[in-house]
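The following block was generated as part of the benchmark described in Methods. Ligand: NAP.
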Amino acid sequence: MRVLVTGAGGQVGSRLTTHLRRAGVEVVACTRAELDLADPGAPGRVVAETRPEVIVNCAAITDVDRCEREPDLARAVNAEGPRRLAEAARSVGAHLVQVSTDYVFSGEQRRPYREDDPTGPLSVYGATKLEGERAAAGAGSWAVGRTSWVFGRPGHDFVAWVLGLPTDRVTGVVDDQTSAPTFAGDLARALAELGLGRHQGVFHLAGAGACTRYGFARDILAAARRDAAHLRPITTAELPRPAPRPVFSVLGDHRLATVGIAPLRHYRDALDEYLTEGGAADG
Ligand SMILES: NC(=O)c1ccc[n+]([C@@H]2O[C@H](COP(=O)([O-])OP(=O)(O)OC[C@H]3O[C@@H](n4cnc5c(N)ncnc54)[C@H](OP(=O)(O)O)[C@@H]3O)[C@@H](O)[C@H]2O)c1
């Protein structure tokens, strides 16, 4: 079995590459330098050369505010990229797994979103990722794995940001956006199963539990046995950003069990393991 992983230098793509290789799967791991989704010819060329049986698209412009400022780039990478990957997948009979986001939802619900709930993105990021989801269907054999608030890139994620905050002054952290932190290593396991099993359709793949950004920051400090007195809960309105975010985007994984894939564990359990492995500290 040969799996092509795009965005292989990112937090999900790198964990997925490691997970698959440990499982004995042949991986063609492409960073942006090797497969640039903004280059219209690249997906077809790389897929024709490497002839994978499964493609997992972990590449995206993930900076939500940058997408708002650079919508053409966001559309090229997050929507057109998956469309071209889907065409390429179809041409070699590969199964395409497209990684997507809770930001395809508007956030008006107060119960976890089901896979078939209506979408309603608020931002350019969410809208272009939704276009990417729809484009994935062009592969013929496809799955979409939506996730939320990913952590797991040592030195460069929310966990590292929280642990690096100065303790001699107060930092405000948003306390009115609720979702579920998801450990990239756990997500990689579920994405691998979706891909290797050629499962079809939309799946929610998020850590169990739910919290606000402020709540997660407190959890991180508690797990690291540190004091949280320097954190202050603030509202989204107190921290104006270019892109609007949904206030509630918890993903319910109603479909995973139907295909025999175990749900992701609680984000706090994953956080403990991540901190134990020393991941958040370096970099
Ligand atoms: N991070 C989150 O909280 C979150 C939440 C929900 C869903 N997701 C989804 O999860 C997936 C993986 O995200 P992540 O957390 O691993 O983000 P990440 O660490 O930012 O990784 C994304 C990767 O995509 C690459 N990339 C950017 N532009 C590209 C292009 N034109 N062609 C090819 N590759 C390109 C980046 O490479 P460079 O660094 O070289 O630019 C980076 O390695 C994405 O689909 C994202 O939308 C993420």
